[in-house]
Amino acid sequence: MKILVIGGTGFIGSQVVKLLAEKGNDITIFHRGNTKSDYKEILGERKNLADFKDQFKKLKPQIVIDVINYTEQNAADLMQSFRGIAERVVVLSSQDVYRAFGRIWGQEDENIEPVPIVENAPLRSKTYYYRDLAENEQDLKYNYSKLLVEKTVTNDAELAATILRLPMVYGIGDHKHRFFDLIKRMDDKRPYILLSDDAASWRWTRGYVENVAEAITIAATDERAKNQIYNVGEKDALKEREWIELLAKEIGWRGEILVLQRDLMKELLEGNFILSQDIFVDTSKIINELNFTETVSRSEAIKRTIAWERENAPATINAKEFDYETEDKIVRNLR
Taking CA atoms, which of 125, 192, 212, 310 is between 20 and 30 Å from 181? Predict the structure, then answer.
């Protein structure tokens, strides 16, 4: 199958491209050229996507996978660029479109949404949900809205689409280094890790990057995914404390997980998130309809993630995230 991947050199995109190629597909990548690629490529800026329509006509991709579609304008450009050319687009969305996710940010009413969250669960009422965090109108957060991305793509009458709502993705190549703080603490042989009581029991669906790439690949190459929306992620959502315990077991850390009332940790915590709302989504639809299965076990995923994080520490480390002096003071005051 001839497939064009927009943004196929980053954290998730590179894994998708690799897997598609391994399965015998004809791959072309549209990217800026800042990262070396071993595949056919078209070099350009995502914001200028529509300018390349003549090249896309010559390429004639059957499927277009858009890894970096964040705004309403991105979505409009995508549909304009491939309408009449491609058979279908596959757009990576996010589980932050759900009303439950907005509740964590205090942007929705106080009613807790039931979990697991299914694909037809209520969506956010606020369109630009990160705009308050934007530094200016040029900041991506100002116009970011997966809600509008989904609406623009699914409302196009001429070009079919598949929407994949991704979880918190972790693993090899994670530029956000989501597990680094815990791994570093354990490698630093800290005697304890502090965890607020609300965070300890909070659940958020995660997905290991290679498994997420498998889900994207299946959705892109299976005709049954046409005009469908799927949640992607692990079948169950562990509590935060359980994730720490799994990391500790793999690393061999024998320290103590201290679960404290949130107000006792106010010197360390940033933000005022409402963690009584779990973000645990139901992924049975993609499993049942497309026969998706995870190819990498959770234990192996954790092992690979730890090894990668140790070899690829962030270029800069925020000292505030590792304020061991304050942590020790809090513990001393408890004892």
Answer: 212
